[in-house]
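step 3/5: co-fold with coenzyme A
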Amino acid sequence: MPPAFQNLKLDLAGGIATLTVNRPDVRNALDLATVKEFHEALRVLAEEESLGVLILTGAGDTTFVAGADIREIRARNVKDALAGINTHLFAAVERFPRPTIAAVNGYALGGGCELALACDIRIASEKAKFGLPELGLGIIPGAGGTQRLPRIVGWGRAKHLIFTGEVLDAAKAEQFGLVSRVVPPDRLLEAAREIASKILTRGPLAARLAKLSLNAAARVDLDSGLLVEMLAQSVCFGSEDKVEGTTAFLEKRPAKFTGK
Ligand code: COA
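step 4/5: write C-alpha cells
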C-alpha cells in the first residue's frame, strides 16, 4: 500500500508507478514540503520489488511543474541555496534505480523543466511548454539546468534558451531532442504507460544496469565509460535473466524475467 501524501499522488499498478505533483492551485510549484515528500516517495518506490518503471507528471491540465516555489525562493538566503534542495532531489530522480518517464502535460518551467531533464525519457502533450525563465528572477537555473540541458540539446541551444528565457512549444521541443514523442493531451498518460509497458518486457536487471551505464556516459571519459559498460555487462552475464532471455529467444517464447 503506497503511503498517502499531501502534495503528491502515487499510483502503483502492474509494475508501473505514476507519481503526480499535486498542487494545481500554484501550478504544481515545488515547495520544501513537496520536495520532502518526493524524496520519501522515491525511497519507498526504490524498495518496491514489483516496480519496473516510474512515470512523473503534474496535476491539472495546464502545468507539469511551474518550478520551485517562488515565494520560498524569495525568502531563501545564500546558506539555503548552498543546501541544493532541488539539486539533490533531481539527482535522486536521475539516480532512481528504474527507468523514469516524464509525461509533460503542460508548462515545465524552471525547476519543472529541470525535473523533466533529470528523467530518462521525456514525452509531451501537444500543450506542453518548456522553459528556463530563472534569469528573469535574478537567479540561474541552478538545479541542473545549466548542466543537463546542454547535454541534451547542445550548448548553443541551451545558452539561447537560458539567456533569453524563451519558451519552447512541444513541436520545437521534439525538434530539439528535448522530448522523444508528442501526443494529444488526452493520450499522454496512455502513451507513457505504453512506453513503460514496452520497458517492462525487457530484462529488469539489464534495464537497471543500462541506466547506470548511460548515466555514467554523461559524466566520464570514453575509456572509463567503456569500463563501466563492460562491468555492467559482466553482471548481466552472471544473471538468471540472461539465461532466461537467451533461452526464451531460442525456444521462440516470451521471456519470463525475475530481475535476478
Ligand atoms: N511558485 C509559486 N507560485 C506559483 C508558481 C511558482 N513557481 N507558479 C505559479 N504560481 C502561482 C501564482 O502565483 C498564482 O497564485 P495566486 O492564484 O495566488 O495568484 C497561481 O499559481 C496561478 O498562477 P498564474 O500565473 O495565474 O497561472 P497561469 O495558468 O496564468 O500561468 C504559468 C501558469 C506556469 C505560466 C505561470 O504561473 C508562471 O509563469 N509561473 C512561474 C514560472 C517560473 O518562473 N518558474 C521558475 C521558478 S524558479
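step 5/5: annotate
The chain has two domains: 8-200, 204-250.
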